[in-house]
Amino acid sequence: MSDYIVRGMSMDGMVKVVAIRSTEMVRRGAQLQKTTPNATAAFGRALTAASMMGNMQKVENGSMTLQIKADGPIGSIVCVSDSVGNVRGYVYEPNVPLVEKHPGKLDVGSTVGKNGTLTVIRDLQMKEPYVGSIELVSGEIADDVTAYFAQSEQTPTACALGVLVDRDQQVKVAGGYLIQLLPGATDETIDIVEKGIQRAGAVTAMLEQDMTPEDILGQVCGGLGVVFMETTEVAYKCYCTRQRVTAALISLGRKELEEIAAEGKAFPVECQFCDEVYTFTPEDIYEILKTV
Hints:
Layout: E1 4-10, E2 15-21, H1 23-33, H2 37-57, E3 63-70, E4 76-82, E5 87-91, E6 100-102, E7 105-106, H3 108-112, E8 116-123, E9 130-135, H4 142-152, E10 157-165, E11 171-181, H5 187-200, H6 203-208, H7 213-221, E12 226-233, H8 242-250, H9 254-262, E13 267-270, E14 277-280, H10 282-289
Antiparallel strand pairs: 1-2, 1-12, 2-11, 3-4, 3-8, 4-5, 6-7, 8-9, 10-11, 13-14
Helix pairs in contact: 1-2, 5-7, 9-10
């Protein structure tokens, strides 16, 4: 089954809702980054959140970058989403130790760390990108995304994310949702949403029951009802090309390029997002130097 995002609105028009099935994209990201279970769970949650946040932007050719830097063993996580919700990302340290809150429950907060920051960079195709940053709340990522929207964008938000790693260390299910209150939401609406979130429980448990993103939003919103407005397939997707890598090499400057060429050896450049390797011969480097 392909991953997809569904967007909608409560029937009273006071709550904006987004949910995602992200199992395949998280599997692909974990495979490329060669993550151990705790890193897989943390990275997967970040990919899931970034996909929904990028999709919500709806700026053609725009992008959204989610950066988490903290004192946990994973070091940092970077995820980039396009305006559709396709994502790519990497982790600084993919091989982190197994830490559980209790048997069968990975401790993502300890993997990420609590002393650090969550930064969102929105490229809205304007002169300068929008950058917002907050101190981490828990390192669990969903709590931190919730705090980001409240503090940086003044939008009351509930975020839930889940990645279930099976005993064979493969991703079994992954997904999440974002619920945002719009101006004018009544106390009754807020109460229904809060009770719905409590009733729905963990995202992974719902996904294990084969609930769809639409089912999950219906469970969370309860009596409010949901009007589904858009469904979009999403995937783990890297946009690297030889041309883009060449542009990156040019940015190194003439002196460093001359040193690389003078070594007389093939110069491999590996994409940190997808492990694609682009090899440049000394002759290739000399050709690039003609443009610098």
